[in-house]
Amino acid sequence: MNIRLVAKYLGYISLLMGLFMVLSLPWAWPQWGYRTDLRLTHQGFENHGFNGLLLSAVICWGIGLALFLPHRRVTGKMYHKEALAVVALSWAMATFLGALPYILSGTMRGPMVRLTDEAENRVLVTLPRWQIWNSWAFVEHVSDDELRLVRTLVESGRRGLSHRELQGLETSQSPAELFETMQQKPLWSELLLGPGQGSAATPVDRAAHYRIQWRNMGLVDSWFESQSGFSTAGATVLTNVDDATLVPHCILFWRASTQFLGGLGIIVLFVAILGHGAVGKSLMRYEMPGPTKEGVSSKMQHTAWVFAGVYCALTAAAAILYLICGMSVFDALCHAFATISTGGFSSYNQSMGAFVTIPGVHGIAIEYIAIALMILSGTNFVLLYLALFLRKFGACFRDIEFRAYILILALLSLLVIASGFQFQDHGFETIEEGIRHGMFQVVSIATTTGFGTSDFDRWNQFSRGLFLAIMFLGGCAGSTACGFKIIRLVLLWKILRIELEHMFRPRVVRLLRLGDKVLEDAALPRSILVYFALTILIFAVSWLLIAAIEPNETWGGQSQNKLLDSAAVVAASMSNVGPALGIAGASQNYANFSSVTKLVCIFLMLLGRLEIVPILVLMHPAFWRDQ
Fold first, then answer.
1. What is the distance between the alpha carbons of residues 476 and 490, in angstroms, rounded to a whole number?
2. 223-278 tens-digit pLDDT
3. Three-state DSSP string of 427-482
4. Labelling 546: which of 60, 91, 498, 561 has CA 20 to 30 A away?
5. Which of left, alpha, beta for 344 (phi over 0: left; psi -120 to 50: alpha)?
6. Which pLDDT score, from 0 to 100, does residue 294 have?
7. Cα separation of 109 and 385, whole Å?
8. C-beta separation of 258 from 234 below 8 A
9. 424 Cβ neighbours under 8 A, 6+ residues apart
10. Nearest to 463 by CA among 443, 444, 441, 484
11. What's the pLDDT score for residue 486?
């Protein structure tokens, strides 16, 4: 193992990370970062976000120079070991460095108090100090007046309540006196903030309000958000991205940029810019998703430029289409990054569904455009290059994977739409709404994008179960989608058919074909079966692990859903879908989970993005030996 050569290329990656952080800095100025919904636009310069990003960029450059300069003259051939190490370690390093802006900017995760749906007067709270195991604890014996006050404060968000709004509450005693009485209790003294209390960063218009304490993003939360971005998962721990005082616009843009980089691929970008001949070929071989590497040619820099060109062209087209439909520049870029990368991060709490409610915006058109773009993003980029740049449109329809991809999406959409109308689900009030919501959610989950226009977790049980299965699906090989990949499912079907026939016709020899092409690689069937076996094994172990280690308090009074929710969380993390079911469903997030569960999800997202093998290989002790 040539450690010095690996360190040299990791230095390049760190320098590139710092560069992209700097590109997010202009959005700290209000002239750049305004939103489509003008009610959410910030009013001043985002000092904390700017400083956090700038300091993070400086740290990235410092680490990059420390890795690169001592080894800048190191040369040598990059073998499989070095290529695997660079690919896996560059993703791990990028996600860790990508967490710095969240920490250093003081980005807020969510309130430190939760309400349960139980009839009993109990409130879930989390303490200011960091805990790796049990994040939430019940506060028993809360009076009706205290519960009403806490509920109102939680619903008011970080803004809180003015004195006049607080006095409007109907309680048996003065609401202000009740607030002061609760503050004198040991636990509530750390969770409630009165006028003039809190940090110096609190906006002036909120400093005089009564409010609930919000938690800053710590190391695990920031690492989770960064990993989700670079893995294009779209899972988030941020409770309220609508409020710029909680999540600055420049941080939101960095969050979207991590998905842009993750969808393009850090190594693809690196090879496109720097080339590096045979080194680039070795790196791309482990970076490219899918079981076959047909797009990996000997001219690696050309191949990287093809992928980067198609990716950037689709991103630019998405941004222009969103602008035409009424989005602001900020929102158009953020959602274009999230759409083409199949990431799913939105700059609104309601995701894509927010634009239907904004006056002057063609929200319905945005949803149909997003459906088409997500389908394209889940298509093999080699086919898109042939169709869009070389005008060989027939190549798409001759490709067996693309035909299976479109057929599966159409069939699943029909099933979800039919069941939605059958059970009269929310969002299926009219024919047009039902077709739009059904298609959108199927395409979003199947391509591992994770956008939402409706809370599909409130739909019928058949649709929910179908979505759980769809999470494993993924798009085509050579796309930005994660998951199994359609080509693997096609090959698995063919392999199983051959093996079943061999059971009763042992003398018949069937060749493995893909269309008219015979696949002569004897190791391919074994690699397909090993991949599926590893996926099932990791899923089962992770599912039971989360069910065992995650405290019941995380579910409040709904711990009977723990087993299903844990399975959905593992599936959504491994396939980088993002939203799962239940506590981590379309209208929820991952903020309520303990730190140890978030660390498990971080590992699963990295495994899913690099398709398991490169990460597992690094964990083998023999990998690091010279012989």
1. 11
2. 999 999 999 999 999 999 998 889 999 999 999 999 999 988 755 654 544 444 44
3. CCCCHHHHHHHHHHHHHHHHCCCCCCCCCHHHCCHHHHHHHHHHCCCCCCCCCCCC
4. 91
5. left
6. 47
7. 40
8. no
9. none
10. 441
11. 92
- Rounded CA separation 98/66 (Å): 18
| Contact in structure between 308 and 264 (CB atoms under 8 Å) | yes
Residue 575 CA to residue 570 CA, distance in Å, equals 8
Whether the Cβ atoms of residue 41 and residue 35 lie closer than 8 Å to each other? yes
Non-local CB neighbours of 41 within 8 Å, separated by 6+ positions: 30, 33, 34, 35, 244
Residue 211: count other Cβ atoms within 10 Å of its Cβ.
23
Q: Are 452 and 353 in contact (CB under 8 A)?
A: yes
DSSP 354: G
For residues 487 and 474, give the distance between their C-alpha atoms in angstroms, rounded to a whole number: 10
Contacts of 594 (CB under 8 A, 6+ apart): 131, 132, 133, 134, 135, 549, 550, 551, 554
Distance CA 263, CA 230 (A): 7
Are 450 and 580 contacting, i.e. CB atoms less than 8 angstroms apart?
A: no
Helix (H) / strand (E) element for 113: namely: strand 113-115
Query: What is the three-class DSSP state of 116?
Result: coil
Tokens of 611: 């398709």
Quote the CA–CA distance of 369 and 605 in Å, as a whole number: 27
CA-wise closest residue to 340 among 242, 262, 395, 287: 262
Q: What whole-number distance in Å separates Cα of residue 447 and Cα of residue 232?
A: 11
Quote the CA–CA distance of 444 and 435 in Å, as a whole number. Answer: 14
Which strands, in side-by-side order, build the sheet including 113-115? 113-115, 123-125, 137-139
How far apart are the C-alpha atoms of 309 and 300, rounded to whole Å?
14
| Token digits of residue 476 | 């085509």
Contact 162, 179 (CB under 8 A): no
User: Which residue ranges in the chain fall short of pLDDT 70?
Assistant: 41-43, 117-122, 127-134, 199-202, 204-205, 266-302, 557, 626-627
- Give the model's pLDDT for residue 277: 46
**pLDDT for the residue numbered 130:** 56
The pTM score is: 0.91
Instruction: Give 545-595 as a DSSP string.
Output: HHHHHS-GGGGTT-GGGHHHHHHHHHHHHHTT----SGGGSTT--STTS-H
Q: What CA–CA distance (Å, rounded) separates 268 from 192?
A: 48
